[in-house]
Design brief:
This protein has 12 helices and no strands. It is mainly α.
Length: 314
Amino acid sequence: MIKDPVKDIKPYQTDIHPLLQLMIIFFFLIFIPVIGFFIAKGIITLLYGAQTATDVGAFNISNPHVKNGLWILQIVSTTIPLFVIPVLFARFIVRDTPTYLKPTFNFPPVLFVLVFSIMLFSSPVMEVLVNLNQKLTLPAPLKAVEDLMRAMEQQAQKATEAMLNMKNIGDMLFAVLVVGLLTAIAEEFLFRGCIQTIFIKWTGNTHAAIWITAIAFSAFHMEFFSFLPRVALGVFFGYFVAWSGSIWTGVWAHFLNNASAVVITYLYQHKAISLNPDDQHVFNYGAYAFSLIFILILLYIYRNIALKKPMFDF
């Protein structure tokens, strides 16, 4: 049984009820990205013309400026708002940045090594979840909903493929910066920083808060057919942050996940490796079992070091 699974979370102190806190964040998530969207469209129009702005919305990759337009749209309407929202919320709404954003580096540096190892050896488990997710279908009455989700995911995939069409190492480093680092910081501040903290304060149960936040994190991406592996990632990130008391362990894990996908895609595009990043049949059952057992051991070690517990404290 895991005891005391969280570090430095204060009891509910603000006058704002957690439900209202969530409603405020939800409002921000609608309002601020919409502003960012119109700003991005304006920037694209000024730089490349109205036709390119239209082509960006239609993912018309035959237009040579669409790739740059998609990056502008991503950064201005998504990445920046997702960073601004938790910072504004923690600083000006609840006025408790240390608790809600957890920007401290006061944790053993070896946790970074353990996070790296966990993310490295979790690949087979993620593959199992991806393959399981691909087999899931909605009930017949919801067939139209499933078809809509597939269409939306295909559109999103088209945009991702256009943005990650990397011609040189400069393109790769830019993608690592935006998709890897900036996205990791923004999403972790929002989900493992603010939202997970709100649910911890509301439910009084760290485990429930981590899982609820992980599900919300996955749902936010609106990609039903990669829902399960993203929930698992959210759970990993959630425990990393809860046990260490620092957002940076979650950011590091999130960065490793995103940046490695970018680098592998780049290497595959330039035929430096033969491993197709879209291939989900790389490992065998032995690798699946080893991966699960090994990452559970590493998580146990991580927890005990982060919480300064004896290594064999059950």
